[in-house]
């Protein structure tokens, strides 16, 4: 296969070659991409800690009981767990709405902070919803502010210049997302997990995420959790060095990935966003209605029809990914730093995401 042949060529590192291969808009050879909906030889079933999460807590987080989840590992990647969509019907909508309507608001940080005045980016949702609702299929229509969003940081805000977190740039982590993360981590054997930092990535069909390792957290004993919503993507998981050829896999709406242990510090990237495999405007799991009978204490909220129309229009050409991590071990503190500057928290929208229309920008290695 073409993808396999690329890994044997000299010169450019193996990861970069496959990234470029899958990045091509006309890349048609996807036979080597692992599909967890039809697991092949490299895939095996992973055991979950069913008793670590009560059914009630799973319901409160918008998840099926853990006993009903399917979880898979990959040969050669100990600590990697892939969980195909374990969300209850309609519950993905809550997280999509939070990522578009609530989480981008202050005091959280986003890529727009760098090149727009603060008063221009208040209420991104309010400024964008009518434009999104009326949006047609033309590529020449001006983009709404929400469509210009590339990343949002939560909790401990990652500094893109220093590639560090710091104690003096922290805002409260969203309680609903912390609860969801706690249940998923516990089901995967990490009952002490604390959601302390999050990076939300907003992709369009011309977006990609450069080759990088998530190593800025001071505690690597806890997993990295990844949640995907909307259109699909190809995810590349490599090794400890870029010379090691990565494994390509599909990620679809609702899928969860957990990188822990050996796999916690592996190179990875997203070279390409793809239309969902059902061939419809949205995957069917996003068209399911939320139950009217939510459990007591549920973190899931009903979305109005008006709000969901805006979210659905956005997702017709987009994908949202939430990555959650624990920064500090229990009782651990940040090392003393001098002259920390909060102005360096944002970077250009293209230095984290690659865009096919911005060829001059090379992928960045970031957390």
Structure, described:
The protein has 367 residues and is of the alpha+beta class. The chain is built from nine helices and 14 strands. The chain starts with a helix and ends in a 12-residue tail after the last strand. The C terminus is likely disordered. Pfam families: 2OG-FeII_Oxy_2. Its EC number is 1.14.11.33, 1.14.11.51, 4.2.99.18.
Q: Given the helix and strand composition, which structural class is it?
A: alpha+beta
Strand order, main sheet: write it out: 3-11-8-13-6-5-4
Query: Helical amount among residues, as a percent range?
Result: 10-25%
Shape: globular
The number of strands is 14
Q: End-to-end span in angstroms?
A: 31 Å
Rg over CA atoms, rounded to whole Å, is 20 Å
**Contiguous uncertain segments of 5+ residues:** 340-352, 355-367
Largest sheet: 7 strands, antiparallel
In sequence order, what are the helices and strands, one letter per element? HHEHEEHEHHEHEEEEEEEHEHE
Q: Kindly state the mean pLDDT as a whole number? A: 88
Specify the number of helices: 9
Strand content: 15-25%
């Amino acid at each position: 296969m073409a993808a396999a042949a690329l890994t044997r060529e000299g010169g450019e590192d193996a990861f970069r070659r496959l990234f470029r291969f899958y990045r091509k808009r006309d890349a048609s050879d996807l036979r080597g991409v692992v599909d967890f909906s039809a697991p092949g030889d490299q895939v095996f079933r992973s055991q979950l800690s069913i008793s670590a999460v009560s059914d009630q807590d799973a319901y409160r987080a918008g998840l099926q009981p853990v006993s009903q989840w399917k979880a898979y590992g990959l040969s050669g990647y100990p600590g990697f767990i892939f969980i195909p969509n374990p969300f209850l019907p309609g519950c993905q909508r809550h997280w999509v709405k939070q990522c578009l309507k609530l989480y981008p608001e202050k005091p959280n940080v986003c890529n727009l902070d760098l090149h727009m005045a603060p008063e221009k980016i208040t209420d991104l949702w309010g400024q964008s919803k009518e434009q999104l609702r009326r949006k047609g299929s033309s590529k020449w229509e001006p983009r709404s502010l929400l469509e210009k969003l590339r990343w949002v940081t939560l909790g401990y805000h990652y500094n893109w210049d220093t590639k560090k977190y710091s104690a003096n740039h922290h805002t409260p982590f969203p309680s609903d997302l912390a609860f969801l993360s706690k249940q998923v981590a516990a089901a995967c054997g990490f009952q002490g997990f604390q959601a302390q930092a999050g990076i939300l990535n907003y992709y369009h069909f011309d977006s990609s995420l450069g080759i990088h390792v998530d190593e800025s957290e001071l505690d690597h004993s806890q997993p990295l959790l990844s949640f995907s919503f909307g259109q699909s993507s190809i995810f590349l998981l490599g090794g400890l060095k870029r010379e090691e050829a990565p494994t390509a896999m599909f990620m679809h709406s609702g899928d969860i990935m957990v990188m822990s242990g050996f796999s916690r510090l592996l190179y990875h990237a997203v070279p390409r966003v793809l239309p969902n495999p059902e061939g419809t405007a949205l995957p069917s799991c996003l068209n399911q209605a939320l139950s009217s009978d939510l459990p007591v204490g549920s973190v899931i909220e009903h979305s109005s029809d008006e709000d969901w129309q805006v979210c659905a229009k956005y997702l017709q050409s987009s994908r949202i990914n939430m990555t959650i991590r624990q920064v500090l071990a229990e009782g651990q503190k940040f090392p003393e730093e001098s002259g920390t500057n909060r102005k360096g928290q944002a970077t250009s929208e293209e230095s984290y995401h690659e865009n096919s229309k911005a060829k001059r920008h090379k992928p960045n290695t970031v957390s």
